[in-house]
Design brief:
The complex is a heterodimer. Chain A is an alpha+beta fold. Chain A is 19% helix and 33% strand. The radius of gyration of chain A is 15 Å and the shape is globular.
């Protein structure tokens, strides 16, 4: 949680038990390098402590792209798949509490847009947890759940 | 933030008193005595919470209650799946479908137990601190431990770095088979100092008798 990882093919990157957090898999299919961020919160500007840059969408994603470029990726080739951002607990309908999942997804998309990256696969929202398994040899992302099946992005 | 042994003892003591209160109410509800103990209270870094539960992908039942009032907090009561089923059987005195989803009746039975535990704990906390706490109606989820914990932590995770874990064991049948529930009190970042101050252990030395 609140960490990013990156590697070259054939490495596999996994983030387990995403709830309201958003997993962001960024891949260069030509250089075959990939990175996976586990975004916990939308915005570092609203936090008191920003020591862990990997926690926030607006800092984790630019940092990760930079790492991938160091590994030989080119920004115009990068494709992105995102998952998570669920609301695990629902209180009354107009309760803003536990809306952080939705806000994480919105912030992630906004930041990706600013970075000029395109999203080619998405499995977000709902009320269930997800595990992401990102294979950097082919860029596939397997989504595992409890009771909501599996899918490949 | 580091808690001293004295501060942890104070919080654990509240847990024990709360468990005593809860045992009495549960006994009335179930028509028999439910011995309960609080083997430990620990302050965990957020990153270790999921490991303490057996891993991010472990299938669990979680019931979440938001606390408003003088010191805001979130309480998450987590049970491993098989223990939750066992508890439901005891509560409803019947066999329900295994493995699949929890029916509304089952969810509300588990919600009620959580209400009792939460209420008992908050009552003990309130008596010792003279602070007011107001719990919401609990919300139910059955999913991966990591997903439940991460949702709670992100909600307050702007700054919070720790959670208070109060394990609660209750012995629920004649063979002495127990249910260990993990009762997490996750104070909002500003709340823990308020609670410790009200307990008279803010600086790690007991000032209650001043």
């Amino acid at each position: 949680m609140a960490q990013s990882g990156w590697c070259r093919a054939p490495g596999v990157l996994i983030t387990s038990g995403l709830g309201s957090c958003v997993g962001v898999a960024i891949y260069d299919p030509q250089a075959k390098v990939g990175g996976l961020a586990h975004v916990m919160l939308p915005d570092s500007q609203q936090a008191r402590s920003t020591e862990n840059r990997a926690k926030f969408a607006d800092t984790a994603l630019p940092d990760l792209v930079e790492k991938l470029e160091e590994l030989g990726a080119r920004r115009h080739r990068l494709v992105v798949k995102i998952a998570g951002g669920a609301q695990m607990f629902s209180f009354s309908k107009n309760d803003e509490r536990f809306s952080v999942g939705r806000r994480n997804v919105e912030a992630t998309k906004r930041v990706l847009g600013e970075l000029g990256l395109r999203i080619t696969g998405e499995d977000t929202g709902g009320n269930h947890g997800r595990t992401m398994i990102f294979t950097t040899s082919d860029g596939q992302v397997l989504i595992k759940t409890i009771g909501h099946g599996e899918k490949v992005l | 933030m580091q808690l001293s042994n004295l501060q942890l003892d104070a919080l654990k003591e509240i847990g024990t008193i709360g468990a005593g209160n809860a045992a009495t109410v549960l006994a009335t509800l179930l028509g028999r005595r439910i011995p309960m103990t609080v083997p430990q209270a620990r302050l965990l870094p957020l990153s270790e919470v999921v490991d303490a539960l057996g891993g991010a992908e472990k299938e669990v039942v979680g019931i979440c209650t938001a606390i408003s009032g003088d010191a805001k907090a979130t309480i998450l009561f987590l049970l491993p799946l098989e223990r939750a089923r066992h508890l439901v059987r005891l509560l409803l005195h019947r066999e329900e479908g295994e493995g699949g989803v929890f029916s509304e009746m089952e969810q509300s039975a588990l919600g009620e137990v959580t209400n009792i535990l939460t209420g008992a704990y908050l009552q003990a906390l309130s008596e010792m601190t003279h602070l007011q706490f107001h719990p919401t109606v609990p919300a139910f989820a059955h999913d991966m431990a990591g997903a439940l914990v991460d949702s709670i932590l992100s909600e307050i995770g702007q700054v919070a770095d720790y959670a208070l874990l109060i394990d609660t064991d209750f012995v629920t049948d004649d063979e002495g088979e127990g249910v260990r529930g993990h009762f997490f009190l996750v104070p909002d970042p500003d709340s823990l100092p308020v609670i410790l101050q009200a307990l008279g252990v803010k600086d790690g030395c007991n000032q209650k008798e001043r």
